[in-house]
Amino acid sequence: MNTDSPDIDEKRRMIWQSLAAVPAGKVVTYGQLAQLAGLPGYARFVGATLKRLPKDTQLPWFRVINASGKISFPEASDAYKRQRQRLQEDGITVKDNRVSLKHYQWSP
DNA sequence: TCCTTGACGGAGA
DNA sequence: ATCTCCGCCAAGG
Predict the structure, then answer these.
(1) CB of A11 under 7 A from strand C?
(2) Nucleotide nearest to A66 (CA to C1')
(3) What angle do CA A98, A102, A107 make, to 5 degrees?
(4) Which bases of strand B sit closer than 7 A to a protein CB?
(5) Structural domains in chain A?
(6) Phi, psi of A90, rounded to the nearest 5 degrees
(7) A20-76 confidence digits (pLDDT tens)
(8) What is the pTM of this model?
């Protein structure tokens, strides 16, 4: 059951919806996803929302990277390795923990 | 209720 | 290119 306030839950829904639209082979930044969801300034909240996703989610959480073009996890972590793996399966080149936003950033 | 933390980002140095 | 500082908004203690 959901005990969160309606407005917060609604914001999460907006983010999930926008995330679902990000196509394979493309990436978006946390801040960009917030804007696409109609929530400018909510970059941090996007991160907090992705953190709450179930491990077996179908949403493309791995297509979200930070504004510097890097994966927002320590390079030694499993989370980092999983995200890099999924991105590479998408055909995205990850060189030294860096994705070229110039080539892969999605613009709807 | 107050204080700290965080899958963020932009401005400055 | 890097690093620090600071504003941002929730979540957790």
Answers:
(1) yes
(2) B8
(3) 115
(4) 6-10
(5) 6-101 (1.10.10.10)
(6) -80, -5
(7) 999 999 999 999 999 999 999 999 999 999 999 999 999 999 999 999 999 999 999
(8) 0.94
